[in-house]
Design brief:
Blueprint: H1 3-22, H2 29-41, E1 44-48, H3 55-65, E2 66-67, E3 70-74, H4 81-85, E4 86-92, E5 98-104, E6 111-115, H5 122-125, H6 129-134, E7 136-139, E8 142-145, E9 151-156, H7 169-172, E10 175-180, H8 186-196, E11 208-209, H9 210-222, H10 227-238, H11 249-254, E12 255-257, H12 261-277, H13 285-296, E13 301-302, H14 304-309, H15 313-323, H16 329-332
Parallel strand pairs: 1-9, 1-10, 2-11, 3-6, 6-9
Antiparallel strand pairs: 4-5, 7-8, 12-13
């Protein structure tokens, strides 16, 4: 299959997924696009928004249109790591002897919905750390690999304080994108009410299987990135590092820590997927800029001054995009 045919196959699969998800999810085009970009890039997604905006429904719908195994975990304060990973239980074999047998937990699935992830204690949240980065878990005294592909789609509510535990920075950094889910427009809300207050039922079809998805993910890695575009991504990440030679002025003022190298990885991989969705086999500056907010907003740690003045990481990112020129020559000029 030629490169052009592979790109067209990617676009067809992407369009089919968008169409099937659109049967259930009203609006939220940027949110659906960001989720699918992270999916094809092989990354995990954190969806943040107030209750009732369709975060869980989006992930459930995604599980229905992908021919992958799916598990859902409702995170609660009393959830334990073994409830996620699994545990050894005593079983009696055919000869009557008792032996330990590992009972797999819900993490052993291709697509894992971690619903309201910030309601679990840090001890339980940490059960996902190894799986998200290494695609394996240590449980029952053994290393147990997870079948590829493996995605964590987590949701969290930003307004609840009681009974919630903020995700540690190490775990936030393992999420490819953090996507903010906002309120629907008046027309979208009207359509939501029309769909959910009548007897109509929507059926979605599985359009991408495991083998096809892995092939498309491999294609993403093959997309070339020109050196000047890659350099732009590097300069964006370095501009978020406060008290460094490359820091943007706003980073020095409002940040305690900047993005890790994973932020740069997310910029390039997200840009590659976006390029493919538009039928291009090369990454542009616009592709990098389009994914910068979702790739970096959870990787920047604001300082006290930012919190006191209500400055969010999105504000910082927007200013960094203005301050960092696309042309590297402008930096030294």
């Amino acid at each position: 299959m030629s490169t052009e045919e592979r790109i067209q196959s990617f676009r067809d699969s992407y369009a089919a997924l968008r169409a099937e998800i659109g049967k259930v999810i009203v609006g939220h085009d940027a949110i659906v696009e960001g989720t699918l970009i992270a999916l094809f890039a092989g990354g995990h997604v954190l969806l943040e928004g107030v209750p009732g905006l369709g975060k869980t429904l989006l992930v459930r719908t995604l599980s229905q249109v992908l021919d992958l195994s799916f598990s859902r975990i409702q995170f609660t304060p009393d959830l334990m790591p073994a409830d996620i990973l699994g545990t050894n239980i005593v079983m009696e074999n055919a000869s009557g002897r008792r032996e330990f047998q590992f009972q797999s937990g819900p993490i052993f699935a291709h697509l894992l919905l971690a619903d309201e992830i910030n309601r679990a204690t840090p001890k339980t949240q940490s059960a996902l750390l190894e799986a998200m980065q290494e695609h394996q878990v240590t449980a029952g005294g053994a290393l147990r690999p997870l079948e590829e592909p493996f995605f964590v789609m987590a949701t969290q509510n930003p307004i609840d304080q009681e009974g919630t535990y903020p995700l540690p920075e190490a775990q936030l950094d393992r999420f490819f994108f953090k996507i903010l889910v906002g309120y629907p427009s008046p027309s979208e809300l009207a359509e939501v009410l029309n769909r959910t207050t009548t007897g109509a039922k929507t059926q979605v079809n599985k359009v991408v299987n495991r083998e096809t998805l892995i092939e498309l993910m491999d294609l993403v890695r093959e997309v070339p990135v020109a050196s000047h575009v890659k350099d732009y991504a590097v300069r964006l990440v370095l501009a978020t590092h406060p008290r460094s030679e490359t820091a943007a002025a706003i980073s020095n003022q409002y940040l305690r820590f900047g993005s890790s190298p994973r932020g740069g990885q997310a910029l390039l991989l997200g840009g590659k997927v976006r390029a493919l969705t538009q039928g291009r086999f090369n990454v542009s500056f616009d592709d990098i800029e389009a994914v910068t907010a979702t790739a970096l907003r959870h990787r920047l740690i604001p300082n006290f001054e930012a919190e006191a003045e209500g400055i969010t990481t999105d504000h910082v990112i927007a200013q960094v995009l203005q301050d960092v020129p696309r042309d590297a020559q402008a930096v030294t000029a």
